[in-house]
C-alpha cells in the first residue's frame, strides 16, 4: 500500500522562485533564506517520495473570479507553469499521476469532501516555488505531483477546521491506495503578509512563531482559529496558512519536527518552513 513519509510546510514567495531562476540564491539578501532550506532539501533527497501531494493556491492565474473551486484536485498527466506576466517560469513541466489522482478523487468524494476534479490546468508560483524550495533547479522534477488547489483568495474561503479534516481524509485516501509508492504532502503559502491596501507590508513574527508552535503541538485547536483573527494578526494574504492545516491533518497527532526555519522578510512576506514526520 502507499505510505505517507511526512509533511512539508513552506511559504511560496514568488521572488524566491525568481532568485532560483536568475542565480541569485547566494546574494546577501537571499543567502540566509536558502541556507535555512538546506536541511529540508536534504530530508526530501533522502526520503525520495514517488509522489508529492502539493496543497497550494492559485492567484487568479488558472482560476480567476469566473471559476472559484474551493478544493480542486489535478488528475491530469502534466501541468504547465502559468505565465504570470513575465513568461512562464523556466522550470520543468510538473508531471501528474492520473491513477493516484483519480484514486484520491474517488476516496475523498466518497468520504464526503466535494472536490472539483480537474484534468487540464496550469500551475502558478503557489505550486512551482515550493518545488524549487525543496528540489532546487533540476532538469526534471524528481517526483510526480498531485496539485490540490485551495481557494484562499476569494471570500468565502474554507475554514481552517475544514482544511484540517480534509487532511485526515487525504491520509485515509493515501493509505487505501493499492500501490507501493512513497508519498509526501506539502502545505504551502503564508506566513504573515499583506500585499495590498492600507495595511500592506504587515508581518507578525511573534504570531507566526506561536502559530508554528501550536501547529506542531495542538493542531486541532489551532484549526479552530477563524478567518477574522488570521486577517487581523497575519494580514490579508496570511490566510494562506490554512493550507498548511491540510498537511497537518494528514499526519499523526504527535509528530517529530525534522526541520523548522523562519525568516523575515522575504520580499513582503514572512518565510516559514517546516518538515514533519510521524513519530
Ligand atoms: C508575495 C507573496 C505571495 O504569497 C504572493 O502570492 C505574491 C507575492 C510577496 O511577498 O511578494
Ligand atoms: Fe500567495
Helical fraction equals 25-40%
Could you give the count of β-strands? 10
Strand % is 15-25%
Low-confidence stretches: none
CATH superfamily label:
LigB-like
| Total tally of structural domains | 1
Could you name the CATH topology?
A: Protocatechuate 4,5-dioxygenase, Chain B
CATH class: Alpha Beta
Query: Strand order across the biggest sheet?
Result: 6-3-7-2-8-1-10-9
**How many distinct helices?**
10
Any idea what the shape is? Answer: globular
Bound molecules: 3,4-dihydroxybenzoic acid, fe (iii) ion
How would you describe this structure to a colleague?
This protein has an eight-stranded mixed beta sheet, sandwiched between helices. The chain is globular and about 45 Å long. It has helices at 14-21, 31-35, 38-47, 98-110, 125-135, 160-175, 205-217, 219-222, 227-234, 242-250, and strands spanning 3-10, 51-56, 71-74, 78-79, 94-95, 116-118, 144-150, 182-188, 255-266, 269-278. The two termini are 19 Å apart. The chain contains ten helices and ten strands. It has 279 residues and is α/β, with parallel strands linked by helices. Helix 1 packs across helix 5. It has a single domain, classed as 3-Layer(aba) Sandwich (Protocatechuate 4,5-dioxygenase, Chain B). The relative contact order is 0.23. The chain is 35% helix and 22% strand.
